[in-house]
Amino acid sequence: MGKRTIVPFGPQHPALPEPIHLDLELEDEKVVRAIPSIGYVHRGLEKLAETRDYEQMTYVMERVCGICSFGHSYGYTGAVEGLMDIEIPDRAKYLRVIFHELSRVHSHLLWLGLLADAMGFDSLFMHCWRIREKVLDVFEEITGARVIMSFCKVGGVRKDVTPEMLNKVAGVCNEIEKEVRKTGMVFMKDTSVRNRLVGKGILSKQEVIDLSAVGPVARGSGFDNDVRTTEPTYKALGFEPILRDEGDCYARCMVRVDEIIQSMNLIRTAIKDIPTGDFCVPVKGSVPVGDFAYRVEQPRGEGFYYVQGNGTKNLSRARVRTPTNINIPALVKTLQGCDLQDVTMLVLTIDPCISCTER
Amino acid sequence: MNQEFKEIEYSEIPALAKRMLAGGYRMVQICGVTKEGENELVYSFDKDHEMVSYKVHVPFGTTIGSITPEYWAAFVYENEIHDLFGVEFTDSKLDYKGNFFRMSVKTPWKGAEKKDEGAA
Fold it and tell me: Which of A73, A232, B72, B93 could be A152's S-S partner, Cβ–Cβ 3.0 to 4.6 Å?
């Protein structure tokens, strides 16, 4: 048995722009145990539901995180609409899907860039982020904002999108797909990338279930818990989850690459099939007494939203369980037995979003 | 979406966890809600995309059983609920002893007056 050492990882670390801390217990160069610490920047956003009405909370929710901003407003409004028994127009459902998938594309491209950056593959990092800019430009043109768009509202979406603009979005999707197919090949085939990812941080399907992992972490181990599978609008678009069996860092990476291409197809189909009509319904009054839980497949995995009404305009509780929240135990598991040099890759392949976790 | 919320006693939580694990359920989340004189905890599980949730009413000052022996990942929620709502768990497999969140306000979801009420 080698000498045991504890190496602190974070909360400030070059691979992580946000604060999470891991105590890595090492035996020589092998990690034998990892203990995570979060809570460095807990903001208490859920608590604001006590002093903000349910409409105002939409703005709070989309500020849980910049990257997953749309997904949070989508999940929260879905929960409130469920509680208030509001049926939103079909056009709004399709517009939400288009924006949600665009958000997934920019989130995955951001992550691919960060992964490349952590490997020291800077040209790849820049290509990923350059492609991502096209999505942000679309957001800006439609909503006037690149990150926090305030597009979702209780009852539908805040504004309609013209057919001309939707055609333009479809054109941008074609451009992005072409570039992602080229850039994705680097992640798929480049030796230096494969050396850092293949066979690292393996999670079996059963471990994923036991650890309640979600998103590409689960799907990279062959476990389908993609919420979109049961979502009627996604079903109508012919959605099928992307699964891989390897369960390693490479599988998690390739699930994300393939999901970008899949999102492009979903967006184009949604644009082709989008119904005409209203884009929102008027919503008035207080939220009824009761509760509702709603799930959305965020780019990082299943997001859980729970709201409890008390008969006033304020909610008794607005709860967000973000994907990173529940992927931390899976991270801890993969770290056990890994080499110290692989810790960064393992941490990154769960796509940690500490801003979400510290909502 | 299935909105089934079943009510159970807090003493049944460990047995519930054993049953759900044996049934092949994935744990989705645990959520705390402050009520008059008690915390309401919502345990959610999923199997084949069907979610089922259980509500548990926990009077202030009550210690309840941890589900981390069955669902180790639940340490994330139980420590959160401990730090934010002041609920104590026994037999936790990873207890941060109140140091999971670093906050200026101790158990912000449980006001001082409610704490006293619970103690009474």
Answer: A73
